[in-house]
Amino acid sequence: MSEHSSDSPGKRMGRDLLFPTPVYYTDLVEAERINAELVEGIRRWREADPRGEHRTNEPRVGGWHSRADMHTRREFDPLTSEIFELMHGVFADLGYDADYEPACDAMWANINPPHAANRQHTHPHALWSGVYYVQTPPNSGLIYFTDPRPQAQVLTPYYDLRRRSPATWMEVHYQAQPGRLIVFPAWLAHAVQPNLTELDGPQAERISVSFNFHQRRRDAREGAPRRTVVRADLTPG
Ligand SMILES: [Fe+2]
Prior knowledge:
By secondary structure, the chain is an alpha+beta fold. Helices cover 16% and strands 31% of the residues. It has one domain: q2cbj1_9rhob like domain (Jelly Rolls), CATH 2.60.120.620. The protein has helices spanning 31-48, 77-93, 151-154; strands spanning 4-8, 11-15, 24-27, 60-61, 64-65, 100-112, 117-121, 128-135, 143-146, 171-174, 180-185, 190-192, 206-217. A hairpin with a 2-residue loop joins strand 1 and strand 2 (11-15).
């Protein structure tokens, strides 16, 4: 692999970075138009269904969480198709089997008013998860990911902070800006800081969309029961 090498006195030292955690992101070109429609559509949805979805293991602290069928609602198609396009890119980038395609399990809208937050969590039973930002007032909370390797946190070395490499970060925050789409492995623990905006009213709400994807055989019927992907020709190595 030899991702990196450096010279030390008298020796050349190679370094491989094994088992990386990929996080993909893009900023939608059509964000302004898509977001104007999303703000309206999501607020209408909340008015029609103010209770939204409640789960016993939900990481949400305050705020509103829609039902998880957003990907089946035609009015949200412009965003749904952008998400699918990115997921196809992820599948291609990672060299997934071309007989399998991205399939959306669940997609839902989140409205975090001031002081709402999301505790650390993962997305069980999904392969990939992601978030899209619709409206993010200043200081309304960033998403952050934490190092999924507990061993790496047992003993934290002292770093020279002026030279610290991203490969040694233990917590990574992403800017939540309207139009940004971020995709990450569903097992990667993440959380959202509280919304501490000083704005009032509708402009104070942090609005985002979350989703889960899995891998489905291209010839599977729409709505067919999901199958666990077992490949007899693959052995651990
Ligand atoms: Fe999440």
